[in-house]
Amino acid sequence: MEKISFIGLDINKTTIVGLLLNKTMLFAYVLLALAAFGIYEIFDVRYFSAAANAHASGLNPTSLELKEAMRLAVFGDVGEVNRNIPWTLFIVNYMYMIYTGSGIIFLVALAELMNFHLVEKAAAGFMVAGIAMVFAGLFTIATDLNMLNMVWMVLTPNVGAGMWLMLPLYCTYIPFVLFEIYLVLTHKRAWAKRLALPILVLSIIVDLIEYYIQAKLFSMNTARHLWTEFPFLTFYFIISAFVSSLGVMGIVSFLAHRQKHEYGALMELNRKAMLFFVSILGLYEIFAYMTVDKDWAFLILFGPFRYVYFIGYIFLTLTLPFLCIVKPRKPIFTLIASISVVIGGYVGRYLFVYGGNANPMSNRFGVGYEKYDFYALSKPFNYVAPHLGEIFIVVGSVGVAIAIYKLFDVLLSVGELREHH
């Protein structure tokens, strides 16, 4: 393919049709169209719901929108997270994408420092996949905050708020990763290896600060004390992110390398790494449920989500992958394990975030634990099923990741191995 040289990069010469209208991009556009519809739905709910007036009350006095409008009229709104409103699918997706994306980048940087030459050669594709997932997570949280909130965040900055705490980190982390990708693509291996250590440190800092922010916000709700009183919880986020990251790397290896000679070796290396982290995660789960808050543990293990936990999380994240990768087999088994942990890891994030909405919701002095719910009698936990708009936006975030990766690949062939110079 004819190439154009620009600042050391060999850019593939392609047409607009080849760049923007290939099959993968068309699929991404479909997902992005769903996201656009989801954003419309969310804006409609936020800004055009029924008002708390006599006319609306007479037409449909039991309307959830009306009750929410009346609640806001009486109690007001205290910010993006409060003790009455449970966390949602936006938070699940944001956390999953950010942790998994930074996990991929961490593992690739670690492999470079440990001289795994095959991973070094495939580093560009893996890192682009990681940064694409980070952008997908940021897309999700941006639609959650919406443009009006973000404008006021800038106009009236509160440096103690969650997003303001992350802003400087992302402004540092993302350029570092993009520069590392540039060094790999231009065959500057020595400099790429030097930059791998700062990226390794930054990836861990992203995870730790992200965990701190979620804990800071969750601490507004006594039931979410799980975040701040269980010190080993940080390891759950990191280890489970590595498992999901290796799943994504296995899928990328299949899509980009399955017809090339390096495919078997890449999948075998992925199998060994996944077996290690799946085993560590399994041991962690056993330890965690023996020491964590018993009410929360019983809610997850025996409550309404028990089937989702055992089938959607334990089976898909631990049992099935372990059976597929416990010993060397054909690469297809590693691919099955990779798909399984990607889905199971998402279910795990979903369960954790929604489990964090468990009651009791407050512990007032002289009153003790109080159970809260929106408009009904108290329930075991404060759960509201994801809005259709949220689901569409989350699906659309996958389109963001696919589109970013494909644009890089069409222009720079990031799926190819880079030899060392």
Q: How would you portray this structure in words?
A:
By secondary structure, the protein is mainly alpha-helical. The chain has helices at residues 16-20, 23-47, 54-59, 64-75, 89-113, 117-121, 123-155, 162-185, 189-218, 226-229, 233-257, 263-291, 294-302, 306-325, 331-355, 388-412, and strands at residues 3-6, 9-12, 362-364, 368-370. It has one domain (28-412): Formate dehydrogenase/DMSO reductase domain (Formate dehydrogenase/DMSO reductase fold, Up-down Bundle), CATH 1.20.1630. A hairpin with a 2-residue loop joins strand 1 and strand 2 (9-12). The longest helix is centred in the N-terminal third of the chain and has 33 residues, at 123-155. It is globular and about 70 Å long.
Order of helices and strands: EEHHHHHHHHHHHHHHHEEH
Total domains: 1
Number of helices: 16
Main-sheet strand order equals 1-2
Shape: globular
Q: In the CATH classification, which architecture applies?
A: Up-down Bundle
Helix content: over 70%
Mean pLDDT: 80
Structural class: mainly alpha
Q: Tell me how many strands there are.
A: 4
CATH topology: Formate dehydrogenase/DMSO reductase fold
Task: Write the topology of this structure.
Elements: E1 3-6, E2 9-12, H1 16-20, H2 23-47, H3 54-59, H4 64-75, H5 89-113, H6 117-121, H7 123-155, H8 162-185, H9 189-218, H10 226-229, H11 233-257, H12 263-291, H13 294-302, H14 306-325, H15 331-355, E3 362-364, E4 368-370, H16 388-412
Helix pairs in contact: 2-16, 5-7, 5-9, 5-11, 5-15, 7-8, 7-11, 7-16, 8-9, 11-12, 11-15, 12-14, 12-15, 14-15
